[in-house]
Amino acid sequence: MIGLRAYKRCDAKKIVSWCKDENVFNLWGGKRFGDFPISDDIINQKYFDNNGDCDEEDNFFPMTAFDDTGIVGHFILRYILGNDKILRMGWVIVDDSKRGNKIGQNMLRLGLKYAFEIMQANIVTIGVIERNIPAYKCYLSAGFRKSETLEDSFVNINGENLKIIELEMSKEEYFSENDLTERE
Questions:
Q1: Are 110 and 104 in contact, with CB atoms under 8 Å apart?
Q2: Nearest 5°: CA angle at 150, between 149 and 153?
Q3: In this predicted structure, what is the pLDDT of residue 140?
Q4: For residues 23 and 88, is the Cβ–Cβ distance under 8 A?
Q5: 26: helix, coil or strand?
Q6: Which end of the chain is more exposed for a tag (fewer CB within 10 A), N or C?
Q7: How far does CA 103 lie from the centroid of its chain?
Q8: DSSP element (H, E) containing 134
Q9: Alpha-carbon distance 85 to 87, whole Å?
């Protein structure tokens, strides 16, 4: 069973340890943090001093997943398109020693619950690099589907243009999938 809480500065050490090589770092979205290798100070500077690169003050929500063994995953939420009803999930990473135990899927489902039930989002989006098949399958298993509102894009990593597949879930899909009655 996993839980979710707000990110703390001390979480950065674990996240850094999961970025074992440049490939993992890049798939996580590490280029937004600079060059590999990364440090906990760089993550905390990005999150606390630079508000996750968000212009709006109240627009960056880093989250940490944990179980009885400690920290097992991490992601962020932020509003996009100037709309406080559309949230973007990103910088998703899971402890590689825990892979295969549905930690990522369960973490994302908790994140969706938080986004729809607490933050009152109407849509949650997430992007995944096309060649990151494990993450793509994880996102689909958490309930995301191909986006109807966002177009796929490309990111240049080490001189290679990689396709980013855009996925989303609507509030209606979330509540129907979870057999819940939408709150007014």
A1: no
A2: 160
A3: 97
A4: no
A5: helix
A6: C
A7: 13
A8: helix 133-141
A9: 6
Q: How much helix, strand and coil, in percent to the nearest 5, is found in the chain?
A: 40, 35, 30
Between the alpha carbon of residue 68 and those of residues 1, 65, 71, 181, the distances in Å are 8, 11, 9, 31
**Rg for the chain, CA atoms, rounded:** 16
Residue 112: partners with Cβ closer than 8 Å, 6 or more residues away: 124, 142, 143, 169, 174
Handedness of CA 37, 41, 46, 50 (dihedral sign): negative
- The tens-digit pLDDT sequence of the chain (184 residues) is 999 999 999 999 999 999 999 999 999 988 899 999 999 999 999 999 999 999 888 899 999 999 999 999 999 999 998 889 999 999 999 999 988 889 999 999 999 999 999 999 999 999 999 999 999 999 999 999 999 888 999 998 888 899 999 999 999 999 988 765 444 4
